[in-house]
């Protein structure tokens, strides 16, 4: 499951950039049993916070991040439109693909995180 959500460090960076992390659908919880410490990922809802000892930390799934992204952004007088594929995600200019903001790698979760960071850094979200 950990490969389907952002890491704690990635979530911290987004939070520092002002992204509202309360919309995360999952969260990390920490607990001890038999003297051992465990980390788990569970649905982010009220039950996470009922047991404060679990120290819930919200985390985004791919879908959570996509839902935060605007369908289009304007930059320097041009409109860029959100484009999602199996291998890339980003904002493209239909007239000039070379002038697009794209992330392309085999890990769509990482790519989407990078675009979300870009959006936050440029105050689009």
Describe the structure in brief:
The chain is an alpha+beta fold and 125 residues long.
Can you tell me about this structure?
By secondary structure, the protein is α+β, with helices and mostly antiparallel strands. 28% of the residues lie in helices and 31% in strands. It has 4 helices and 7 strands. It has helices at residues 8-16, 46-50, 62-68, 108-121, and strands at 26-33, 36-43, 57-59, 72-75, 78-84, 88-92, 101-104. The strands form 2 sheets. It has a 4-stranded antiparallel sheet, covered by helices on one side. Strand 5 and strand 6 form a beta hairpin. It is elongated, with a radius of gyration of 17 Å. The two termini are 27 Å apart.
Set down the secondary structure blueprint:
Blueprint: H1 8-16, E1 26-33, E2 36-43, H2 46-50, E3 57-59, H3 62-68, E4 72-75, E5 78-84, E6 88-92, E7 101-104, H4 108-121
Antiparallel strand pairs: 1-2, 1-3, 4-5, 5-6, 6-7
Helix pairs in contact: 3-4
Number of helices: 4
| Total E-strand runs | 7
Helix/strand/pairing category: alpha+beta
Shape: elongated
Question: What is the CA-CA span between the terminal residues?
Answer: 27 Å
Poorly predicted runs of 5 or more residues: none
Major sheet: 4 strands, antiparallel
C-alpha-based Rg, rounded: 17 Å
Mean pLDDT: 82
Residues in β-strands, percent: 25-35%
**Looking across the biggest beta sheet, what order are the strands in?**
4-5-6-7
N-to-C order of helices and strands: HEEHEHEEEEH
């Amino acid at each position: 499951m950990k490969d389907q959500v952002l890491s704690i460090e990635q979530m911290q960076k987004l939070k520092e950039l002002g992204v509202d992390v309360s919309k995360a659908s999952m969260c990390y919880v920490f607990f001890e049993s038999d003297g051992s410490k465990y980390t788990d990922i569970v649905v982010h809802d009220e039950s996470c916070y009922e047991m404060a000892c679990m120290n819930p930390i919200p985390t985004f799934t791919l879908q959570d991040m996509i839902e935060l992204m605007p369908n289009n952004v304007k930059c320097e007088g041009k409109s860029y439109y959100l484009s999602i594929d199996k291998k890339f995600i980003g904002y493209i200019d239909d007239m000039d693909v070379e002038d697009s903001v794209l992330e392309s790698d085999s890990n769509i979760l990482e790519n989407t995180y990078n675009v979300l960071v870009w959006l936050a850094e440029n105050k689009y979200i």
